[in-house]
Amino acid sequence: MRLLLLLLVLLLPGIAPAGAIRLKDLVDFDGVRGNDLIGYGLVVGLNGTGDGLRNAPFTEEIMSNILERLGVNVAGEELRPKNVAAVFVTASLPPFARVGSQIDVTVSAIGDSKSLLGGTLIMTPLNAADGQIYAVAQGTVLADGVAAEGDAASVVRGAPTAGVIPAGARVEREIDFDLGTLTQMRLALREPDFTTANRIEAAVNREFNRRVAVMRDSGTVQIDIAATQAHSTAHAISRIENILVEPERKARVVVDQRSGTIVMGDDVRISRVAVSQGNLTLRVEEAPIVVQPNPFAEGQTVVVPRTVAGIEEDPGTRLAEVPETTTLSEVVAGLNALGVSPRDMIDILKTIKAAGALHAEFVVQ
Q1: pTM (2 d.p.)
Q2: Residues 254, 317: contact at Cβ < 8 Å?
C-alpha cells in the first residue's frame, strides 16, 4: 500500500492539467517570424481568358519589358493577345529559410482576366518591405475555381482569377538574423492575459528548476537564455516550446450575422433575466376601385381609394426565466427549448447584453 502511494506521489507532478496546451501553440518567439513577399508578374498560356489590353494597359507594358529583356524588339508594335494576364504574386518567407529552399506562392489577377486556369507564371522577383529581392517565382498556376460561358449564359464557381503554385518560388536571399547571439528572448502571447502569462512564468521556471522566466506584462514573458544553461538558444527554445500550460481566456460570444453562426465559450455566464421572443407583422394593402358613369351618361371617372390594414402577431415563445450564473450548456438548452432560430438567438443575446446580464465580450462579425 505504501509503495502504491509513493508511486502516485511521484507521478502526480507529471500529470498535465486537463486543458493544458503546448507553449508553442500559445506564444510567438521574439525574432522567430516570417516575412511577407510580393511581386508583379505575368501569367501566359491562357485559353483566351486573359486581360483585355485596352482596359489593362499595364499588361502590355510588362509584356513588352519581358520581351525586350529576352532580346525581342517590340517598340511601336501593338500587342493584342488574349492569353496573358497581369498578376500580383504573394508569399510568406518562413523563418530561417535558406537559399535554394522552395516556398508556396499565391497568384491573383489584377486586370480584367476571366480565369487563370491553365496559365503559367513567368519568372517573377518577390520583394520584401525593404525592397530587396528574396525569392523568384515561376510555375503552373492551379486556379481555385472554374468559369464557362456561352452566347446567352455563363457560370462561375469559386474564384478562377486566383490560384496557387505549390513550391513555386525559390529562395535567393536569407534574412540576416543570428538566433545564437540572443541572450534574452521574449515570448509574445497570442491572446494577452495576466493569468496565462503568470502560469507560463511558473511553468518555465519549474521546468528548469531555477528563475529563467519573468512576466513583464499581460502579453510578454521574458526568458534569460543564459540561465537555462542550454547548449544554444535553439536548444533552449526546443525545451521551452513543449512545456504544457493551461491558458485562461476571456468569456466571449462571437456571432456571424450573415450565416447565423453563434460561438460561445464555456465560461460565459448570464445573470438572472427573463426572456420572451415573438414576431409582430404590420400589413397595409392598397386596393383602389375605379368608378365610371353609365354609357352615354354625363359624368366623370373617379378612383375611389380603398385600404386594408391589419396587424398579425405570431404566437411566439412564452416568457422564460434564466437563473443566476447560468452556464453555456444551460443557456443553449434554454434557448432551444424556446424554439428560437439561430438568427433570433442572436437578437436575444444582443438584448441580454444590452440589459447587462450577459457577462462576456460580445463580438459581432
Answers
A1: 0.66
A2: no
